[in-house]
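Action item from last week, closing it out:
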Amino acid sequence: MLFSDIIGQAHIKKHLTTSVDNGRVPHAQLFIGPEGSGTLPMAIAYAQYLLCINTEGENTNGNATCNLKFNNFSHPDLHFAFPVTTNGKVKKHPVSSHFLEEWRDLLTKQPYGNLFDWYKQLGVDNKQGQIGVDEAQDIIKALALKAYEGGYKVMLIWMADKMNTAAANKLLKLIEEPPNKTVFLLIAEDEEQIINTIKSRCQLLHFPPLAEIDIKNALIKNYGLNEAIATKIAHQANGNYNKACDLVYNDSEDIQFETWFIFWIRAAFKAKGNKAAIHDLIKWSEDIAKTGRETQKQFLDFCLQFFRQALLLNYNAEALVYIDIKTKKFELSKFAPFVHNNNILDISNELQDAIYHIERNGNSKIILTDLSIKLTRLLHKKSE
C-alpha cells in the first residue's frame, strides 16, 4: 500500500517514515482515530515501509519482491488480529486465521471500512465480535517464530478496543517485552475502551478526522466526480472517508437509519396523550430489535449525531451542519427548536445508555421501548 494513496494525514506519514529512516521504531504503537480517518491503511503502509526496507518516504524504493507481497496483503511477517465471531463457516473457537480470505477481501475493497462493514463481510447478524483469549494464544504462537525474511515481524491488531480483558491480560507481558525486531501496531476508535495497562505500554498516535478538501480531492481522483458533487459529499461525510464512499454509491446505512429515525420522532411527538401512537412506538421497537446488535448500535449512534446537528442548527451554527435530509416533508429547521439546552444532555445520556445495554446483550425490544417512552417525554420538554 503506497503512502501516496492514503488520504491526508501528511504529518503522520512524515512522522512514521522518519522514525523508520532514523532507526527509532517503537515496539508497541497505538493508532487512535475515528472511523474513516485512515488508521488501518496507514498502519499497513507503515508495516510495508518497515518490512520491505523502503526509503524516501514511499513504498517503492526497497525490496521489490517484498513490496509485491503487500499487493494482496500476504507478507509472511505481517500478522493480523481483528474481532471475530462464529458464523456458518466457523462454528466454535473463532480466531482471525480462520477468516484471512474475507479480511483480505475487505482490505482490497474497503480499506477505510468499519466494524459494521466487517461483520457484513463475515455474514453475521445478531452477533458481536471480539478479540478473545484464543486469539491472544494464536498471537503468542505466531510471534514466537523467527521472522520469515529475517527482519522485522509486525502484529497488526485492528479494533483493539474490542479486545476482552482475558486476552489483554494474556498479551501484557508480550507487548511490554516483545521478541527482538517485533512491532505491535494496535488500532482503535475508542481510546477509553483500551485498558490502561495496555495503553501505558504503547506509544500513542492520534489521527484527526480527514479534512474536507482531502476527501473532496480523493473522491474526484478515485470516482471521477465533478467538483460540485464531490464537495457536497465531502461536507456530508464529516471527516469520514468510509461514509463518503457509501454516499457515492447511495449505499450508506444512514439512508435507512434516517427513515427509522424520522418515523420514531413523528411517533414520539404524537404519543403524548395518544394511545395509538404508543402502539406505533412499540411496533417500531420490535422492528428495530429484529436487526443485528451492530445495526442497532450504529443506528443509535446515528440518532446521537442527528440530535447534535439539530442542536447546532437551533443555536445558529449552520456552518457545522452537514446532514442532508432525504425524507420529504421533514425539515431540520422545524425540528431543531425541540432540541435545546434543557433536554439535549438527557437525550444523549439515554441514547448512550441504550447503546451500552445493547452491547452487553440486553433485551433490545425492552431497551428500545423504554428509550422511546423517555424520548417522548424529553421532546416535549420546554427550553429554559
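Closing note: The first strand starts at residue 28 and ends at 32.
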